[in-house]
Here is the input.
Amino acid sequence: MQEAGVPVTYGYISDAHDRYPGGSAFGPGEAGYVAQLKAYDQAFDGFFQRLAKDGITPANSLFVVTSDENDHFVGGKPSPADCDGVTTPCSYRQIGEITANVHGLLATQQHLTTPFQLKSESAPSFYLDGDPAPDTATTREFERAVSKLTAVNPITGTTEPSSHQLADRTEMKILHMVTGDPLRTATFTDFLDPNYLAVAGAANCATPCVGLNAEEAWNHGDFAPDINTTWLGLAGPGVKRLGATGTVWSHDTDIRPTMLALLGLHDVYAHDGRALTEFLTPCALPKGLHAADQDDNRRLATAYKQLNGGVGEFASATLSGATRATASDTPGYTAYRDTGARLAALGDQRDRLARRIGILLDDAASGTGRIPPATARDLARQAEDLIHQADRLARGGPHHAAVGGTSPPTAAASPPAARPARSRAVPPILSPLPETAPMPRTPAGRAALAATGLCGLLASSCAAAPAPDNSPTALRARLPQSIRTSGELRIGSHLTYVPYVMVAAPPMPPGKAPAPVSTSEQRTTSDAR
Here is the structure.
């Protein structure tokens, strides 16, 4: 697609831990797994070499390689014990995710046969028939029963709880798991031990309710550090060459605003992430993110991610509180209702504050606004205070904000010096590919570079280079025939949450907007940028 002139391309990469074309999953260090990884390395090498022959390199194009989430391996201990998969291959006597028939376990352990539907996952969503309200006896009895389920682990032989954390609808909203369609909202979600996968079987255990599924040995979608911790690789103009680093806490939602900032593009899409300015060279920083303001802006961006991220400090703390409340059994459901009211209030405050911060960060990254340092510090303090309140709720402490009210004054809202340690998913940011090439020294070289639109992304000046022809006719002529025929080129409004490689061709030089065009031409021109 790049060779055909398509400037933004996505590629889905299948996982390497499954046997192809079929069969059971590999375990870490197995000979077949290692051989498959080597084949992937060779394929990547060929891919990059072919692009280089076409003149598509990190000197003039942005490369993004990432994974939507990591997978948790389920299996016994490797043999031999000192195998490393490189010099000594590993093998496994037991391998496979542990399936748990929830219908059968509820009926046999808790004597509960309430009808329900199940979305089979390591974090299954439960839909009770009739959609009873969260605080009804039916829902409360069912949630408590699920929280008490146990299973005999077929790998270790030990009896253990299958459920780790529970999220009712209030907590699911905090975790961004509620859509605009109420009929799609589950009654609650159960985050299982990541070794387990919930399935819907018969309401008995005549066939064992717990077993191993050797076809699948890698679980995901759960609330677990090894699943939530993943990685992102960036290389291209304006990207610092840092190697591997785990110093910045980020999400997939940060990829798109970072790409737009690097490519000099912007649109009206409201992001839930922010531009990762820590990995942008000074000349690539959007004008709304002044270097002098970076400390304040990054403090705000960091607080925003911990406040709004689905596995951030705020969400982790509220999930702990929701789990305790959902499993509680107090007269009149007082503990559940009180905690639910506090969670709802905190969630509403979070939503309002995150929305305000997100707009400011988007405007700054697009160059249409600037966040005054005093505003950044004040909003960061408010975010940090809400996180502190969620921590207190998780520990069972008092909550000083009035339910349904506004955030408390920030003057006395400083969080404590240290919070309880919590597992944090810190995706490493990788930039293993070569850095940007130096600026051409000759007028002809600068002219050629200016035509690619990289001037604003490189440290040196392109002032001596003539401006490229960005008229609608010239822009359309530079597009592939298939796109010229359809009259439309769309840059996706969001990134696909699957493992992928993306290659993005450079934008036009900053400040060199296309000449005015008619309404019928405007979308093609702006999207082509």
DSSP finds 14 helices and 18 strands in the chain.
